[in-house]
Hints:
Layout: E1 2-9, H1 15-31, E2 36-43, E3 58-64, H2 67-74, H3 77-89, E4 90-98
Antiparallel strand pairs: 1-3, 1-4, 2-3
Helix pairs in contact: 1-3
Amino acid sequence: MRIICLFNLKPGVDPASYEAWARNGDIPAVNALGSVTSFTVHKATGLFGSDAKPPYDYVEVIDITGMDAFVGDVTTPEFQALAAPFRDFADDPIFMLTEDL
């Protein structure tokens, strides 16, 4: 199962601050979860065939072994403390649940 998160930063958030936190805190913490097989964060750089600005600045891709295990991992007080800064950075993130065809 794959979760795709799309988001922009909140107004006034410094992209360099978010990206440093993502590289040094979020990415290692999420990848360390037993229910996660892969977690990557991507910065949108454009739209293919267009000069328009992408609707979202960042995309997270989280591959998980199962929803119950993932929910168990991310609801611990320890993980919640590690992930708390995300709420300060991300402006109304959208988490899409997907499955392979």
